[in-house]
């Protein structure tokens, strides 16, 4: 009996209508160029819900060259292939799509590229210049765009990464598989890219290919999933290896310098510096002490959120985690610090990532709702007293100064949008917490008909479930709300003390406007449009204070800069101390958090 040399794996998910014909054609084609006992055909049946398992079992019982490998749970395309390859007997491992879109006349060339020519990986291609597949625009355009992105960002030399027609040398594949993180449709791309990066011989050859069945762009699968996977792999292969401790320190320092420079983009530095020079340093120091008091309150509030979700942790540790994450938001772009907190509590306290992100979402919603409430109350007061007209004039005219007014208009517009979004989020969360309907499945089902949408829905359901747990817990909701109100009141008091340091009397009018200015400024900097929100915060603060109080533009900007700087300095000092205490590297935390939060939907073109 000849030992099995070639194992062909057919990934099958609900293929009852076609699997029998596919197996028959595969056996016939293999028999045309291989000895009778030199090959096997494995049906990798991936948790099917139709008659595919029954058909596969029958075929295996009828022909010794056929094997049926069953999975009780859905493993996904990549997962099912790996599961089958591990159990295959051949030294040359092959797979192709069961719809037989690729002409089977190419199978001999595919197999012999590994078996005879000595390549480690071989793949068919629909995008070779000499034989481009003719396919509809709704397939061709997304495929061309996807492959162009992979070639550009991941530095691949191949033209087609997802043609379902590939072969591998067993030794090479066994070495590569531990490097591949994806378990679904990106599995092909990641394996090909990493094979090239690790010096394996990869052959790409043109194939005749005919589209089978209908295809459409899938929002969940294609746009969100594949894009996130390309970025995740780009980070892993091109960015992460270059991030050393020295590079991180240099980049962080540069961002801080840029942030400081941005503080002067809307003003005359000489006038502002003159105003700031007159501020009483001892009172500015007092504002820093008051702001520092709010941080243990943040830790206590975060503890209450986690307790309602079933996790009990000490408030001191959680205060340190909050410090580290907020420092990350100041140093790294795109609010990367938010993901850092989920990493810290996962690495140090084993709280799952979905729960970590859900707890952070709850905190953010309470923050935004509280700030919106403070701003809204004062806005009502301004409307009653007629002062709202002054603010509107300042936003639409040049009374405050061109650049400052422009920044203020942008900031107030952003703040309004964020405030409305916060109110909408709270309404949606509370309503869904009281509803028995599974809204997540309904929404995902409308966006995507792909089978992997169930996986995405499962992750989102866990996230939403944790958020709803807090919303449904009345006492916890009240405690977290009260804590949020106290935290943001201290934030405003910090700014009011800075006004006092500049020599201004804290009249009821200035206190009210101060509450409004700080609230709108904090809403404006929620979107990561500038490092640490610098510029938007100062713009909103200045246009509101200068238009509604006797405080001049230069003085208002000076107060805003000092207020924001005091808060950022306290945050950074607390963050550095917390990193030393908890032995957390901010760079490592950012890297690890970004490599774990990508959802991995599939694509098929």
Automatic annotation (TrEMBL):
<feature type="transmembrane region" description="Helical">
    <location>
        <begin position="273"/>
        <end position="293"/>
    </location>
</feature>
<dbReference type="GO" id="GO:0016757">
    <property type="term" value="F:glycosyltransferase activity"/>
</dbReference>
<keyword id="KW-0472">Membrane</keyword>
<dbReference type="Pfam" id="PF00535">
    <property type="entry name" value="Glycos_transf_2"/>
</dbReference>
<feature type="domain" description="Glycosyltransferase 2-like">
    <location>
        <begin position="7"/>
        <end position="176"/>
    </location>
</feature>
<dbReference type="Pfam" id="PF03706">
    <property type="entry name" value="LPG_synthase_TM"/>
</dbReference>
<protein>
    <submittedName>
        <fullName>Glycosyl transferase</fullName>
    </submittedName>
</protein>
<dbReference type="InterPro" id="IPR001173">
    <property type="entry name" value="Glyco_trans_2-like"/>
</dbReference>
<keyword id="KW-1133">Transmembrane helix</keyword>
<dbReference type="GO" id="GO:0006487">
    <property type="term" value="P:protein N-linked glycosylation"/>
</dbReference>
<keyword id="KW-0808">Transferase</keyword>
<feature type="transmembrane region" description="Helical">
    <location>
        <begin position="408"/>
        <end position="431"/>
    </location>
</feature>
<feature type="transmembrane region" description="Helical">
    <location>
        <begin position="365"/>
        <end position="388"/>
    </location>
</feature>
<feature type="transmembrane region" description="Helical">
    <location>
        <begin position="568"/>
        <end position="586"/>
    </location>
</feature>
<feature type="transmembrane region" description="Helical">
    <location>
        <begin position="539"/>
        <end position="562"/>
    </location>
</feature>
<keyword id="KW-0328">Glycosyltransferase</keyword>
<dbReference type="InterPro" id="IPR022791">
    <property type="entry name" value="L-PG_synthase/AglD"/>
</dbReference>
<dbReference type="GO" id="GO:0005886">
    <property type="term" value="C:plasma membrane"/>
</dbReference>
<dbReference type="InterPro" id="IPR035518">
    <property type="entry name" value="DPG_synthase"/>
</dbReference>
<dbReference type="InterPro" id="IPR029044">
    <property type="entry name" value="Nucleotide-diphossugar_trans"/>
</dbReference>
<feature type="transmembrane region" description="Helical">
    <location>
        <begin position="247"/>
        <end position="267"/>
    </location>
</feature>
<keyword id="KW-0812">Transmembrane</keyword>
<keyword id="KW-1003">Cell membrane</keyword>
<comment type="similarity">
    <text>Belongs to the glycosyltransferase 2 family.</text>
</comment>
């Amino acid at each position: 009996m000849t030992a099995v040399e070639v194992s062909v794996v057919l990934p099958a998910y609900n293929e009852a209508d076609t699997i029998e014909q596919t197996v028959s054609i595969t056996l016939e084609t293999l028999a045309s160029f291989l000895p009778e006992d030199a090959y096997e055909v494995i049906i990798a049946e991936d948790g099917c819900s139709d008659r595919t398992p029954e058909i596969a079992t029958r075929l295996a019982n009828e022909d010794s060259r056929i094997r049926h490998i069953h999975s009780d749970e859905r493993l996904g395309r990549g997962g099912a292939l790996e599961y089958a390859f591990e159990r295959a007997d051949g030294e040359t491992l092959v797979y192709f799509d069961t719809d037989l879109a690729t002409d089977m006349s190419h199978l001999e060339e595919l197999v012999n590229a590994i078996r005879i020519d000595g390549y480690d990986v071989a793949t068919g291609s629909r995008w070779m210049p000499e034989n481009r597949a003719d396919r509809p625009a709704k397939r061709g355009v997304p495929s061309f765009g996807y492959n162009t992105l992979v070639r550009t960002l991941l530095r691949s030399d191949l033209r087609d990464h997802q043609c379902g027609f590939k072969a591998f040398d067993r030794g090479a594949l066994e070495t590569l598989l531990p490097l591949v993180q994806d378990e679904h449709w990106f599995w092909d791309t990641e394996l090909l890219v990493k094979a090239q990066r690790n010096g394996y011989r990869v052959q790409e050859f043109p194939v005749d290919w005919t589209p089978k069945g209908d295809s459409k762009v899938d929002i969940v699968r294609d746009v969100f999933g594949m894009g996130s996977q390309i970025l995740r792999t780009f980070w892993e292969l091109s960015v992460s290896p270059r991030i050393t401790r020295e590079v991180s320190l240099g980049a962080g320092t540069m961002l801080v310098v840029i942030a400081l420079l941005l503080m002067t983009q809307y003003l005359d530095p000489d006038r502002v510096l003159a105003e700031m020079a007159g501020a009483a340093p001892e009172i500015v120091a007092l504002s820093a002490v008051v702001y520092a008091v709010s941080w243990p309150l943040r830790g206590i509030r975060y503890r209450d959120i986690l307790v309602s979700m079933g996790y009990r942790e000490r408030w001191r540790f959680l205060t340190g985690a909050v410090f580290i994450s907020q420092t990350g938001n100041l140093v790294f772009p795109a609010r990367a610090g938010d993901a850092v907190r989920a990493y810290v509590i996962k690495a140090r306290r084993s709280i799952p990532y979905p729960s970590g992100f859900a707890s952070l979402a709850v905190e953010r919603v309470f923050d935004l709702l509280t700030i919106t409430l403070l701003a809204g109350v004062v806005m009502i007061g301004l409307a009653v007293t007629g002062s709202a007209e002054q603010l509107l004039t300042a936003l639409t005219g040049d009374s405050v100064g061109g650049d400052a007014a422009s920044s203020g208009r942008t900031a107030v517009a952003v703040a309004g949008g964020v405030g409305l979004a916060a109110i909408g989020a709270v309404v949606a969360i509370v309503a869904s917490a009281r509803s028995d309907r599974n809204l997540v499945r309904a929404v995902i089902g409308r966006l995507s008909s792909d089978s992997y949408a169930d996986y995405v829905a499962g992750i989102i359901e866990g996230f939403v479930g944790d958020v709803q747990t807090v919303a449904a817990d009345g006492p916890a909701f009240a405690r977290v709300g009260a804590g949020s109100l106290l935290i943001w009141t201290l934030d405003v008091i910090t700014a009011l003390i800075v006004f006092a340091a500049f020599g201004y009397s804290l009249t009821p009018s200035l206190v009210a406007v101060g509450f409004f200015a700080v609230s709108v400024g904090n809403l404006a900097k929620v979107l990561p449009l500038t490092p640490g929100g610098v510029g938007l915060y100062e713009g909103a603060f200045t246009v509101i204070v200068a238009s509604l109080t006797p405080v001049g533009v230069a003085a208002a900007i000076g107060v805003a800069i000092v207020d924001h700087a005091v808060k950022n300095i306290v945050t950074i000092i607390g963050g550095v101390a917390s990193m030393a205490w908890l032995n957390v590297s901010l760079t490592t935390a950012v890297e690890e958090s970004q490599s774990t939060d990508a959802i991995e939907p599939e694509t098929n073109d």
